[in-house]
TrEMBL record, chain A:
Subcellular location: Nucleus, Nuclear pore complex
Family: Belongs to the nucleoporin Nup85 family.
Location, primary (coarse class): nucleus
Coiled-coil ranges per UniProt: none
Gene from which the chain derives: NUP85
Record note on quaternary structure: Component of the nuclear pore complex (NPC).
InterPro entries xrefs: Nucleoporin_Nup85
UniProt-recorded name of the protein: Nuclear pore complex protein Nup85
GO cellular component: nuclear membrane; nuclear pore
Record key words, sorted: Membrane, mRNA transport, Nuclear pore complex, Nucleus, Protein transport, Translocation, Transport
A GO biological process held by the record: protein transport
UniProtKB/TrEMBL annotation, chain B:
WD repeats: 187-229, 231-273
Coiled coil residues, start to end: none
Pfam families xrefs: WD40 (PF00400)
Subcellular location: Nucleus
Entry-linked InterPro entries: WD40/YVTN_repeat-like_dom_sf, WD40_repeat_CS, WD40_repeat_dom_sf, WD40_rpt
Record carries keyword Repeat: yes
Cellular component, GO, one term: nucleus
Record protein name field: Nucleoporin 43
Length: 611, 354
């Protein structure tokens, strides 16, 4: 990795006594947790920490800016649109479409800039106003760089139109032109030139244009030498400028705000048919001449220079270092990747540069309480590590309402992330059970197809029934539908409730066979058999014979199964003895009822029909 | 095509509602309210689409919506209604765990007003009835539902209808004393949660619901327990369904899949069946899929309940120009429609029926 270019900045944590130098920290996905500690070996007494709070330190504050949020949202729409039309981008229209996308991005940046500028003017607090203004200049620089990249890398303007694009570029970014000379430099002559050039794509070839320009240049030179303008020094220097005389141009340094304005003006008058590959020579010399050894190039200058040198990787690298947020480099790199300009050399961690930048950007979005939804789409378009990153991030989104949970689940289901669906549904189902919302808990386990949890919820219902003697939430149990098949316990619950319903409707024979099948088919849990057998008692005691002999035998077998399997108790205590007593009484009653029923059933079945 | 204005507002919009215009007035809607969600500080904002712009050459109004004012809101904004109140009811919805005395607050998921009564439902399965001038709830039905109640609407004044997350519609009559619903309707089969409900403005027995699978169902609450029509609509949860208040043959739905659909069941205009429309609109024809149609009282036939498939075609139009993140909410009033999305944008159109 490269070495840092400068000293790391020191950030003071408010409230923490930094002279004591006792802090602990831990890294998070996009931030750091810091708090004050006090490890004091000498004194044993308890000291109250000077600062009893934990601080979250974030490097990226842009995500929290209200105005920049619009940038993130709008550019997300453009990004997703670009990925979607990728397959349709073929042939000649491809370049035009990509240029259109680039212009869309730039217009979004400009809109943000405008709004922030308005806010900066309207701000009452000067510190706030300064902050907004600096934000405006950062956005302006971003747009400047993007525009240049669009001209050089996406539009790939050839010699000829190249200069026109560069002229537009400079004009867009140079605001102060209030002097006649500056007017001439900025607007009048290019207009003359434009009529001279006509629009690109015409029948004039580059050589024709060059000849014409050469002719005009010679004429200017002749005028200068003849001394036509000797009477007016202004006109004379104007003529020199038009001849591309660098010294004359540099005299007007105050009007040319920066070296790239100087560069383009110089090219306009001396090398209007400059080829793209020659640009960097002129750029470097313009920069040197303009700075004149007084100041050193700023980061922005280096970035622009790298662009003129067609070193895309250097541009991206410098931008990454200079800007505090990954937004710019992520989107620009993605667009350049669509132009097939990035070599696919792999970085250290196995993914290419575009993917790395998108992952970083998207992770930053996930650290935001609200913009995480945008991050999902960015992860989708990272073929290697996107899915895995999404899986890790999406489980950690705090779910405060069901509505939010539903959205997160929908995202997971659309991408077949069954593990995450399961774990989220389980969390929500547990919360519901704790809040005694058994219906909700059941619907969450149905959504996750989680049989184990459905069993848990059913057990709760059955326990409630045993305690209270009646079912709660009948609206749910009565209407389970095919979801009943999710787990055996749930099926049992549904069928048991059906038994009660049949009993209530006095359809005793159906109720009886249902009850029996519940036990013989083994879906009833062992612990519940006693309850089921006790439910059978009233059926056995009815005047008419309900259980057939066969069924009675079955019931007796079940009872024996139950009683024989009972473990021997250890130390009996009073409660246990009482329970045992109740149990024994029940068993005896059952045995008696079963025997009586058997007798009646045998007699009934043995008799002739009709008797 | 209708002009639809989009504006990015730096907050995810969970609800939008037009401010009601006085009945019988010729004014069109010009103010709407929005609520945000998922922010550390949520806001309820009022926006105006009044004459801020200039008249363009067609005589239409230009300019997008402007913020009038906003206030902070604690928690996500789940539902909005307009009424004049002087009260605030906190802790209307809460969870209690068995055996413990503490209460945790539960999200309130829906609210509906019919001056002066206000009904709220929540994730705790509770229904509350408030009056605008009373401090305490007039009536509370605890544990009305074992699952989450997602939405509520008035059927007739003493009756409300709720939908829940196990796919049931329940009708509650406040004149009755018990805590049981007077009627339960549901679709057999998969218990798909229902998220939204709206009643036909003129025919109080016709109700439309939208579910988690994006299915639109039309119900007749007098007839049986099954829906009259099931229409496969969206690919993801349908968040809101609205009948147009003055043109009830038109229905609007919006969904998590990022689309907003206009369902036109009016059968009178033959040119509507033409396939030649201006660009940007995709029109699909769909026949009703009928299930379980009992004998409908013939004198009052709503186009939504009609049985003749050959005669009744519904034209469906998608109103948003590009696919976006989830459209969470929409509202229609007269020729105006407003909707809000998770992409932090609000869309407004003033020429719905152009």
């Amino acid at each position: 990795m490269e070495e840092l270019d400068g000293e790391p900045t020191v950030t003071l944590i408010p409230g923490v006594n930094s002279s004591k130098k006792q802090m602990c920290f831990d890294w998070g996905p996009g931030e750091m947790l810091v708090c004050e500690t006090s490890f004091n070996k000498k004194e044993k007494s308890e000291t109250v920490p000077g600062c009893p709070v934990i601080y979250i330190i974030r490097k990226d504050v842009d995500v929290y800016s209200q105005i920049l949020r619009k940038l993130f949202n709008e550019s997300h729409g453009i990004f997703v649109g670009l990925q979607r039309i990728e397959e349709e981008l073929t042939g000649k229209s491809r370049k035009a479409q990509l240029v259109r996308v680039s212009k869309n991005y730039r217009s979004v940046i400009r809109a943000c800039m405008e709004e922030m500028h308005q806010v900066a003017i309207a701000a009452k607090d000067p510190a706030c106003s300064r902050q907004f203004s600096s934000q405006v200049s950062i956005l302006s620089a971003m747009e400047l760089i993007w525009n240049l990249c669009e001209i050089l890398f996406i539009e790939v303007a050839p010699a000829g139109p190249l200069l026109l694009h560069l002229l537009d570029w400079v004009r867009l970014h140079v605001c102060e032109v209030d002097n006649l000379l500056a007017d001439v430099l900025g607007s009048e002559n290019p207009r003359k030139h434009e009529s001279f050039w006509k629009l690109p794509g015409t029948t004039q070839t580059l050589t024709e244009l060059e000849l014409k320009w050469q002719h005009w240049h010679e004429e200017c030179e002749r005028h200068l030498q003849d001394g036509t303008f000797a009477s007016s020094p202004h006109l004379e220097s104007l003529c020199k400028i038009m001849l591309g005389d660098e010294a004359a141009l540099l005299e007007q340094k105050e009007l040319l705000n920066n070296w790239y304005h100087f560069l383009v003006t110089r090219l306009l008058y001396s090398h209007p048919t400059v080829k793209p590959i020659d640009l960097h020579f002129y750029a470097q010399s313009s920069l040197d001449l303009f700075l004149g050894g007084e100041s050193s190039p700023e980061p922005l200058d280096n970035i622009l220079m790298a662009a003129f040198e067609f070193d895309i990787h250097q541009v991206i690298k410098e931008c990454s270092i200079a800007l505090s947020n990954w937004w710019f480099v992520a989107h620009l790199t993605d667009l350049l990747d669509h132009c097939k300009l990035l070599q696919s050399h792999n970085l250290y961690f196995g993914s290419n540069m575009r993917e790395f930048l998108l992952l970083e950007y998207a992770s930053g979005l996930f650290a935001h309480h609200s913009l995480w939804q945008l991050g999902v789409d960015y992860f989708d378009y990272c073929p290697e590590l996107g899915r895995v990153s999404l899986e890790l991030h999406i489980e950690r989104i705090p779910l405060s309402t069901e509505q939010k949970a539903l959205k997160v689940l929908r995202i997971c289901e659309q991408r077949q992330m069954t593990e995450q669906v399961r774990s989220i549904c389980k969390i929500l189902a547990m919360k519901a059970v704790r809040n005694n919302r058994l219906g909700s808990a059941l619907s969450w386990s149905i959504r996750a197809k989680d049989a184990a949890f459905a069993t848990l919820v059913s057990d709760r219902f059955l326990r409630d029934y045993c305690e209270r003697g009646c079912f709660s939430d009948l609206d749910l149990i009565d209407n389970l539908g095919p979801a009943m098949m999710l787990s055996d316990r749930l099926t049992f619950l549904g069928k048991y409730r059906e038994f009660h319903r049949l009993y209530g409707e006095k359809r005793f024979v159906d109720a009886a066979s249902l009850l029996l099948s519940l036990m013989t088919s083994q879906i009833a849990p062992r612990s519940f058999w006693m309850t089921l057998l006790t439910d059978a008692l009233p059926l056995l005691e009815q005047k008419q014979v309900i259980f057939s002999a066969e069924q009675t035998y079955e019931l007796m077998r079940c009872l024996e199964d139950l009683t024989s399997g009972r473990p021997v108790h250890g130390e009996p205590d009073a409660q246990r003895l009482q329970d045992d007593d109740i149990e024994t009484t029940k068993v005896e009653m059952l045995r008696l009822a079963l025997a009586r029923n058997l007798a009646r059933a045998i007699i009934k079945e043995g008799s002739l029909e009709g008797s | 095509m209708e002009e639809i204005y989009a504006k990015f507002v730096s907050q995810k919009i969970s609800k939008t509602r037009w401010r009601p215009v006085p009945a019988g007035s010729l004014q069109t809607a010009d103010t709407f309210a929005t609520g945000s969600w998922d922010n550390e500080e949520n806001r309820v904002s009022l926006w105006s689409i009044g004459d801020f712009g200039n008249l363009d050459s067609d005589g239409g109004f230009e300019g997008d919506h402007q913020l009038l004012c906003d206030i902070k809101h604690h928690g996500d904004v789940m539902d909005l209604q307009t009424l004049s109140v002087g009260q605030q009811w906190t802790a209307a919805h809460y969870h209690t765990s068995p055996g413990s005395l503490s209460c945790r607050s539960a999200p309130c998921t829906g609210v509906v007003c019919s001056n002066p009564e206000i009904v709220t439902v929540g994730e705790d399965g509770r229904i509350n009835l408030f009056r605008a001038d009373h401090k305490e709830a007039v009536r509370t039905i605890d544990n009305a539902d074992s699952s989450t109640l997602h939405a509520v609407t008035f059927l007739r004044t003493p009756e409300i209808l709720t939908v829940n997350s196990i796919g049931q519609l329940k009708i509650w009559d406040f004149r009755q004393q018990g805590n049981e619903p007077s009627q339960i309707l549901s679709l057999t089969g998969d218990r798909v949660p229902l998220h939204c409900v709206d009643r036909h403005p003129n025919q109080q027995h016709v109700v439309a619901t939208g579910g988690q699978d994006g299915m639109l169902s039309i119900w007749d609450v007098r007839q049986g327990t099954m829906p009259v029509s099931l229409l496969k609509a969206h690919e993801a949860e349908m968040w809101e369904v609205h009948f147009h208040p003055s043109n009830p043959d038109h229905l609007f739905t919006c969904s998590e899949d990022g689309s907003l659909w206009h369902w036109d069941a009016s059968t009178d205009a033959p040119e509507k069946s033409s396939l030649f429309h201006e660009g940007g609109r995709s029109s699909i024809f769909l026949f009703h899929s009928i299930s379980n149609q009992a004998n409908v009282h013939q004198s009052v036939i709503s186009s939504w309940l009609s049985t003749d498939p050959a005669k009744d075609r519904i034209e469906i139009t998608s109103l948003l120009p590009n696919r976006t993140l989830s459209v969470n909410s929409l509202d229609v009033l007269g020729p105006c429609l407003v909707c809000g999305t998770d992409a932090e944008a609000i869309y407004v159109t003033r020429q719905l029926f152009s």
